[in-house]
UniProtKB/TrEMBL annotation:
PROSITE patterns linked: HTH_CROC1
Protein's name according to its UniProt entry: Helix-turn-helix transcriptional regulator
InterPro entries: Cro/C1-type_HTH, DUF5753, Lambda_DNA-bd_dom_sf
Source organism phylogeny: Bacteria, Bacillati, Actinomycetota, Actinomycetes, Streptosporangiales
Source species of the chain: Actinomadura fulvescens
Domain HTH cro/C1-type: 20-72
Length: 272
């Protein structure tokens, strides 16, 4: 699951701080002068402007009254509360997403969970656990929008290889799990998508090292994204890509062929 942002990283807190600084400076006030006018300490005003403190309701209301902002600071504070536990992507993931849109082919190995490109809405929601509803909805919406590349005009060729344990791991309810398996079957019938599965009785194989995604582009360049326990790394150095290409090919030597994979998924569906 993606990491949770610390307060000083949250865009809403940064927006509040910048608005506070702008209104204060426009009024020609120092932090100390504003603090005295509002009945707060100058160190508190400084902490809010530096994004080191979440503004209190009293402080937001005092700012609105003093600057006559028609509720601006109260609304900004509410946005902070709504997004204070916002999901932040692992390092390198935003860069990966930009490049994913440009990829001609995508090779994915998923060791633990269904890859985000293939998750159903309910499966993605279930992954969010105890994260607040607002944040979870934002995360799921972005994930569903991302999947549009699979059905757009001239979509990338996608090869998805799963460890069989992914098919048995129930995320959410049995109904959510069933719908996710049905979605994988449906996706496997698209002309630009191939799905295969490494059986559980394989024993040790290179995929046990973790999930990764390889991207290939029209100009012949390639990239790889690796994510492990909430940390990520996006790699574009040509000298480092061949190792992952070899690893992916080795993983696929253990996988069922397409028909075998469909049979396996169908069998799992029947057992639910």
């Amino acid at each position: 699951m993606p990491a949770v942002s610390e307060p000083h990283d949250a865009p809403a807190i940064v927006t509040f701080a910048r608005e506070l600084t702008a209104w204060r400076e426009q009024a020609g006030l120092s932090k100390k002068q504003l603090a005295e006018a509002l009945g707060f300490t100058d160190s508190y005003v400084g902490q809010v402007e530096l994004c080191k403190n979440i503004p209190s309701e009293e402080f937001a209301e005092a700012l609105n009254t003093y600057f006559k902002t028609n509720g601006l600071f109260v609304r900004l504070r509410q946005r902070i509360l709504e997004t204070r536990h916002a999901v932040a992507p692992p390092p390198g993931f935003n860069q990966y997403l930009e490049r994913e849109q440009e990829a001609r082919y995508i090779r994915v190995f998923s060791a633990l969970l269904v890859n985000g490109l293939f998750q159903t809405k309910d499966y993605a929601s279930a992954m969010m656990g105890t994260v607040d509803e607002f944040t979870a909805n934002e995360f799921v919406t972005r994930r569903m929008e991302r999947q549009a590349i699979l059905t757009r005009e001239n979509p990338p060729q996608v090869l998805l290889t799963l460890d069989e344990s992914v098919l048995h791991r129930v995320i959410g309810s049995r109904d959510v799990h069933r719908a996710q398996l049905e979605a994988l079957l449906e996706a496997s019938e698209r002309p630009n998508i191939t799905i295969d599965v490494v059986p559980q009785n394989t024993g040790y194989y290179p995929g046990l090292a973790g999930s990764f995604t390889l991207l290939g582009f029209n100009d012949g360049t390639q990239a790889v994204y690796i994510e492990t326990q909430g940390t990520g790394q996006f790699i574009e150095q040509p000298s480092r890509i061949p190792d992952y290409l070899v690893q992916y090919d080795l993983i696929k030597t253990h996988a069922y062929h397409l028909n075998g994979t469909r049979t396996l998924i169908s069998s799992k569906l029947e057992s639910l």
